[in-house]
Amino acid sequence: MAEPRVRATGVGVTLEGTSILRSISLDIMPGEVLALVGPNGAGKSTLLGALTGDIRPATGTVTLDGVDLYTMKHLQLAKLRAVLTQQNAVSFPFRVHEVVAMGRSPWGRTPDYENDRSAVVDAMKTTDVLHLADRRYTSLSGGEKARVSLARTLAQHTEIVFLDEPTAALDLRHQEDVMHTARALTAEGKAVVVVLHDLSLAGAYADRIALLAAGELMTVGTPAEVLTAELVERAYGLPVQIMSQPETGRPIVLPRRSAR
User: Fold this and answer.
1) pTM, entire model
2) Distance set, CA 164 to CA 3, 45, 181 (Å)
3) What is residue 224's DSSP assignment?
4) Residues 88-126 pLDDT 10s
């Protein structure tokens, strides 16, 4: 069995005196999509920050390939993992291809810099922004900016990819495109961790789902194991019904609504 690329053990995070996460243990495996889901304030983005090395836990450990994440230099980390955060705005009027090329900065002064142009073009094609290459980033719509930011992350060419709500500003087609891209990365043996609010999207594309609530990890498992009416209702405080997608059998989560 493959070893985890990233392992969190007993991770707790306290911010400004408030406990945000408590005793989280989680493995990130190569070749899989792991979705982090849970209600607002559950600690999903904080956990992502701890797993990427951007937030130092108050307790517990996070290792990458067996090495303490917090002993690594920033440049070393940037060659191993790419991170798309919610706050990915660029305030200067760079052109789109220039923004995407920023993802190649970890590879400057290395032999891999020769791949910069192809990496940038491929990333823009994958995220459907190649036709925007010469547009100013600041002139784009919110959804277009989100796709450009994703392209910048993909251009970094790392074996581990962290995505924080990458579908939040996107239309239906581009939501599906993003998740298809995540699955394509795992086909290359890469590990992908994605924070999602759409439980049905998580159910459709994730190999495993980690369900958080109130700063704790309620459970982690396959979509069928995690997306049950009992667990979702307990986490979100909302009655739901679970249906199966006809073609795949994967779970679809729908809130129960009374007729008016």
Assistant:
1) 0.93
2) 24, 7, 15
3) H
4) 667 678 999 999 999 999 987 677 666 788 999 999 999
